[in-house]
Structures are given as C-alpha cells and as structure tokens.
What does this fold into?
Amino acid sequence: MYYENTPTLETERLILRKFTDDDISDMLLLYSDEEVNKFLPWFPMKTKTDITKYLHRNILPLYEKDISYTYAISLKANKQVIGYIHVNDIGGSNDMGYALRKEFWHKGITTEACAAITDRLRKVDFPFITATHDINNPHSGEVMKKIGMTYRYSYQEQWMPKDIWVTFRMYQLNLDGVERTYTKYQEKYHSFVEPLI
It folds into this structure.
C-alpha cells in the first residue's frame, strides 16, 4: 500500500520535496562541507559539476521507481535547500538517513523532517524503519530517539569509500505494530549490544 514516489510533505517550517537541477548551488553548500560530511560514507564534493553528476546518477533516477522517499529539506521561509532525508533499501533495511547544513544544527529541524516522513509512512502502512549512526556522532542518535526509535544493537563495518572502520548503533521503529528487529547487519558484521543509558 506504500507504493508512492516522494510525495511532497509540509511541516511548520519545512517543505520536503524532490530534488531538481535548480538545487545545485544549495546542494554544494551541503555536500562540500567537511564537518557535515565527516560521518557520511563519501568524501565532500567540491564543484557544481560534482554535484550535478551526483544528482543525475544517484538521486534523480530514484524518482523513476515505483517507490521512493528521497527528499530535499527546504525552508518554507525562503525555499532554500538546507539538507536531505531519505529512506533507502526499501523492502530490506528501510534505512532512514539524513544530513543538514551545520548552521541549522540543534534547531530541531532534522527531527521535524524525520517525524514528517515517519507520519507519512504510518499512513501508508509501511512496516518499519531503521537508522544507524556512528558512535562518535551521538547527536544523530538523539534524533532517532526523539521520533520513537529504539536501540537494538551495534556493529562494526569497514566503511567505503573512506576505508575506515566504524562502529554503528542500529535503531528501529516498527510502524505496523509487529515486533521485529532487522538482523542483517548482525549477521553480516561483528555485532554486540551496548549497555546504553
């Protein structure tokens, strides 16, 4: 029942919508920032050409699929794109990921965007979502907790293309009332449960 492709969502401060070529300049501010990209798998992109290639290779093709939840986070006030949020690997991990320009951190914007998508997924009978964060990036985990996700386990992965070992914490939220834990990361990587407070 959740066969839809990135329907536009609105919150008090935000419009979540599809990316377009008009967003290249705003995207460059996000994807080129070293601090923003510290906990993301790819290296920062430095030029509009890099951003355009990434948009056309990795994002726009998703809008041709039957199911996609891949959003630009834009401000209602001025339509500026300040981040992204998506649910990837639909039918598998249903992994939610996000990033935000650092001048907008700690204002509740990521939580607002995550809550909007979570509410939408509930309405269309989406089963569950997961999300992971580097243990060195606990602020990301706080967002997960605020939208009702709960910690399940941690695992260690060699993250590419940066080629570094990262310990991730995996959180999950079951939206359909069925209790389950997505275990593929446990099965593939060295995993363990931390005594989180």
Q: What stands out?
A: Residues 26 and 78 are 12 Å apart (CA to CA). The mean pLDDT is 96. The chain is about 25% helix and 30% strand. The longest strand covers residues 164-174.
